[in-house]
Amino acid sequence: MSAQNPVFIPGPTNIPEAIRKACDMATLDHRSPDFAKIFRPAVAGVKQVMGLRDGEVILLPSTGTGGWEAAISNTLSPGDTVLAARFGMFSQRWIDLCQRHGLNVEILETPWGQGAPVAAIEAALAVDATHRIKAVLATHNETATGVKSDIAGIRRALDAAGHPALLFVDGVSSIGSMPFEMEGWGVDIAVAGSQKGFMLPAGLAILGVSRKALAAMETAQLPRTFFDFRDMLNSYAGGGYPYTPPVGLINGLAESVKMLTGEGLENVYARHARIAEGVRRAVAAWGMTPCAVSPELYSDTVTAVVVPEGFDGTAVVTLAAEKYGMAFGVGLGEVAGKVFRIGHLGSLTDAMMLSGLAVAEMCMADLGLPLTLGSGVAAAQDYYRGQGAAVRAAA
Amino acid sequence: MSAQNPVFIPGPTNIPEAIRKACDMATLDHRSPDFAKIFRPAVAGVKQVMGLRDGEVILLPSTGTGGWEAAISNTLSPGDTVLAARFGMFSQRWIDLCQRHGLNVEILETPWGQGAPVAAIEAALAVDATHRIKAVLATHNETATGVKSDIAGIRRALDAAGHPALLFVDGVSSIGSMPFEMEGWGVDIAVAGSQKGFMLPAGLAILGVSRKALAAMETAQLPRTFFDFRDMLNSYAGGGYPYTPPVGLINGLAESVKMLTGEGLENVYARHARIAEGVRRAVAAWGMTPCAVSPELYSDTVTAVVVPEGFDGTAVVTLAAEKYGMAFGVGLGEVAGKVFRIGHLGSLTDAMMLSGLAVAEMCMADLGLPLTLGSGVAAAQDYYRGQGAAVRAAA
Amino acid sequence: MSAQNPVFIPGPTNIPEAIRKACDMATLDHRSPDFAKIFRPAVAGVKQVMGLRDGEVILLPSTGTGGWEAAISNTLSPGDTVLAARFGMFSQRWIDLCQRHGLNVEILETPWGQGAPVAAIEAALAVDATHRIKAVLATHNETATGVKSDIAGIRRALDAAGHPALLFVDGVSSIGSMPFEMEGWGVDIAVAGSQKGFMLPAGLAILGVSRKALAAMETAQLPRTFFDFRDMLNSYAGGGYPYTPPVGLINGLAESVKMLTGEGLENVYARHARIAEGVRRAVAAWGMTPCAVSPELYSDTVTAVVVPEGFDGTAVVTLAAEKYGMAFGVGLGEVAGKVFRIGHLGSLTDAMMLSGLAVAEMCMADLGLPLTLGSGVAAAQDYYRGQGAAVRAAA
Amino acid sequence: MSAQNPVFIPGPTNIPEAIRKACDMATLDHRSPDFAKIFRPAVAGVKQVMGLRDGEVILLPSTGTGGWEAAISNTLSPGDTVLAARFGMFSQRWIDLCQRHGLNVEILETPWGQGAPVAAIEAALAVDATHRIKAVLATHNETATGVKSDIAGIRRALDAAGHPALLFVDGVSSIGSMPFEMEGWGVDIAVAGSQKGFMLPAGLAILGVSRKALAAMETAQLPRTFFDFRDMLNSYAGGGYPYTPPVGLINGLAESVKMLTGEGLENVYARHARIAEGVRRAVAAWGMTPCAVSPELYSDTVTAVVVPEGFDGTAVVTLAAEKYGMAFGVGLGEVAGKVFRIGHLGSLTDAMMLSGLAVAEMCMADLGLPLTLGSGVAAAQDYYRGQGAAVRAAA
């Protein structure tokens, strides 16, 4: 794999220079007041990106998986029931995690390619008169299928049912790239990871936690120490950290939120939407479709491209890596082989995206798919040039 | 705090250039075969550093605390009994973690400044005819007091008692700096962190796991997902990782073990011993003593210097930071205020250490302690120049 | 300008990660033996890249312009005559430099778009019975027009005329990217710069000097100190440097030659040829032509694309920078406005090049040129995929 | 040589992290408007550091030697007379350069250890009724002997003699570390290098040029192209550069002047004076003396320590490098073997300096010099702690 080409995996993303330099720090004494000078702006910026006003941000030296575990272990007790839809690899994994931790998961099976089933969620909540369901788990952006779910709709479903369950959202591959409104949507815990929209290396789970979720941690019985919010918040209050923090990553996060808010979150979202739409137009020009079954489900951070019957989507990814030194994502789980995935999030320009589309085309042509070289690129070019590319995109 | 001076905290350590550059990577697709090319030499090198032949190395995007949690949650079940001595802040924290996870901890209270009480451990094991004790927890190097414990002795105690308990060792601040022999000492799980002897930024828990401990994971009932060894080992077998790995840190670890084995582990240990002895001679020249109560307990990675009655050790640390831009460690827990700590592990030269001693002296003089400026430095100089400094120390 | 996109200027080129890290060094005492450990492999590698066996390599903290000045001031005396063809901005500048330094330049005026006129050179030498001409100056790759000259032909012309003049070649934008044979072509001084095929930042003039040229330095009367070969060679002999050397750049050069020879010079040249041919096919698909008037003149490092009459080539460059954050080169001198230039040298992949072609297309479409979006990209894709892209290109 | 220890050579200095990161740039198109955004603040900051108001700053991809050559070749003509004192290796080298370029140098021989002889200069000017002397050359800080000269005194001498000669000052190892006043002292050309007080890698000659010197360039007949101020200034006016500039170094210079002016030039000078005085107190404690013969000559950037008769100063430097991995400077020219040099300029803290003094002591003790270990360190400690160390020193 060439280290010269951008990556088009759905995270980790390409890391901007300024963030690489911010992460690459000499050792700083994390028990000195200097640590808080890094930590506090990072946290303040995350709140802005998440749309969180009243609540806390928790930073864990971990990943999205650790963020999921922290969300449930800090708020729930063994035997508690949670409601979750399964419609992709990442929603599946969170369900699995809950089960391993002794929760009872009420699973709403949903075809891959669709989003979280708002009506079914509302129905499940409506019948739960005893409020057995303690939390609703939702994957905002299912990275396996390129599907965006309607979190505001789930909030409405909770409200309509008058149900007090907590709302936990996996925003790992959406936060920082697509609009996310913790307060507006009444999200109780939002889980993000450093290596997606925040454009950092992997290694940090980033959680937004509402007051309501914080209250739940007082009674939660699931064991936790490394992930314990109480230790975190106690330490944060004094400008510290309960154990040795990954200072460089947190410094990088401070830079990341400065870049995102400097570009303007609306501009960041518009850039992701523009680049994504160019990809989708290329997909259409190839005569193919996204895995997401309808336009309102289209993710602006990843497109899972459905390959023709009889064709192995994984072959595109393998050939791109081996012949052209470029990384795409394979299909996972139920859609393994049926799709290949183009990540288009984080630090990207239209020009970079066009190189990804050009390579995808060459690979598919190499593999005998009947498409016209340049067709997808041209469709994206045509769209991009009409939109006015954002030269100032997070550099 | 000046970023120009070396740090003398007992971790994170000063990071060598080569390691900083290895960590600072462009994004690499962790699902590509390139990942294994980084991961495998890192793991092989860790085995060498830990003295592990038959067993597995687990790398977790976490810290030493996460490593402790992983050790117990992968091998034990709620209600299990573990035996542990409490003789410092870090042994205390591991005990607390076990209790939070529902284990029954049989605690051997031991004065701070002493090491793990081998005789008491042997006695406790001897009376445990039913083998209620599932694991013995030992802190190899208690970072709070600068005390090294006799792990080989604990192994002998287990053997003498014919007791089948697992032996878990916290080697966070010893591994890579002081001799450590997983096989030789019959250690079942050794926990290390990236930010000490491995000279990396924080963010990686590094575990060595024996076959016996691996067998225990099949029956362990403590919940875990993020830390689950089974997922790890299944993924490693195929050159992968169960979730997004911190590739840069692992690449840095590969560089670290190359540096350590390139210098020669015996040379690394000798360098640490030499630098530490210089520090202790300086302490003696100041008319003070280490917190560790006898020479065989002296740690080669950190010295907790006992300050005179009525004097606040924390003031040395504060003044050093504020006036001289240099970081030392404060006393923690029972010895808060009674000691200040000089970290002397990782990437250090004699010359760097002398600057730390010189600053400590100036601070103590500034604070009115009756010592002679230059006295500690001279004692260390005299020792170092007789030993032949290691110019080739991990650069 | 976005720092995320590759640059497509004809130098400085994109800098590979490994070279950036090699250049970014802590201070090293250049009077210590450590300096020679960096300097010597750099020099040995440059010899290999230049095809120099019997002679010396000189490294000057300077640029190509300084290299030109060093070439003449170390070998010639005021009033000496040199023979040079003028067929582009860089051949013009070298002529101007000679004139400023008091040389008499016999200029062979040659249309821009053509190469060094071998027949005219031979004719000029043939009539120079008194050997008034002390040196022939030739620009191997005229960066302004994208024209490659026939240096072997000039050597044959010299030999045919039995003329003893020195042969000085500007290989700034060819060496390391296109075949160059100092010995084979009888080149007496070859001038290269760090920021082209060597993929380094600007700051180093790299000269190959034959024995014959070294002999000339004994009698040369042009004043020089900073550029004096004698001081250089005297210092090199002892592993030193006559003044403070740019150690980081030289370390980067050592890495560069390791990368070039590691990839294999033949592979490096083939990669440049492949990428260049793709660019030319794109140009043809756009209905345009290179400035170079015939195929044997086509440069493999830069293509000057002739834009239609009435159209301003500079506008493409300006729009690409402002709207798409991508850098191309403007036309210079006689061809200002008539061409825009696409640099395709150094650290590049096919995928990167396709992003450059895609942006050039969008710009030309934006500016109203009647081309089909995707047409040039498709032509290049078609060519590249047939050639088997070099994933392992200098990373 | 260990890369972990600071260097104590009189340049290049230790490079601060922020400057290393500023220098380490991805390629930026130097013909785009982005270049001026880097160049202009760099130039503005240099003016501030040099105390230059009415004149120009010239940045050359070169070194101090190139700066000297540029100073004379842009202002003088073959056969012109210049007046210069010889009192160290660097004043000697500038004289040699002038002679090689065809100037007539009137040399005032001055013992090494003394500074520029103001009275003798005045006398020489007074007798030059025909104003044969076109320029006076002065070395502000003679790096070979650690001697600071009185530039204001030379200006007074010129004024007293009513002599119109230009005043050229080598400020390579003083500017940015010691007070320098181009306007106040009536300096016509000041020559600095990137690798001393500016704390950058070598590779940039930095010149301040007065209006009077700029006027001289119109009539100067010495040949120059690479160093030609006219090309430079023409290009600067349009935000450009006459050839490919070393963009990273210039970006680093912009960071450097931001750091220097951010710390406050007075604070920078006071820090250098404080650290230097500590070194001199250590030297006195060792029973030795600086090469500079009287206190008003003491340099604040380098101390040449005179070793006892019969002792080889070079041995200290060799042993420090080989045994302790630390770099000092050897004696040069007339004082070779008689001194060793301690550089104390650029990015340094008191703590770093103490490590240098401690190592120098160990080396001298190892070599049998009858000093007390710790004595020099203690003298410096005593001084530093009374002065209040500058934690915020250029980090």
UniProtKB/TrEMBL annotation, chains A, B, C, D:
Keywords: Aminotransferase, Pyridoxal phosphate, Transferase. PANTHER family: ALANINE--GLYOXYLATE AMINOTRANSFERASE 1, AMINOTRANSFERASE CLASS V. Pfam families: Aminotran_5. GO terms for molecular function: glycine-oxaloacetate transaminase activity. It comes from Acidimangrovimonas pyrenivorans. This is L-aspartate--glyoxylate aminotransferase BhcA. InterPro entries: Aminotrans_V_dom, Aminotrans_V_PyrdxlP_BS, AspGlyoxATase, PyrdxlP-dep_Trfase, PyrdxlP-dep_Trfase_major, PyrdxlP-dep_Trfase_small, SP_NH2Trfase/AEP_transaminase. Belongs to the class-V pyridoxal-phosphate-dependent aminotransferase family. Its EC number is 2.6.1.35. Residues 29-328 form the Aminotransferase class V domain. Its cofactor is pyridoxal 5'-phosphate.
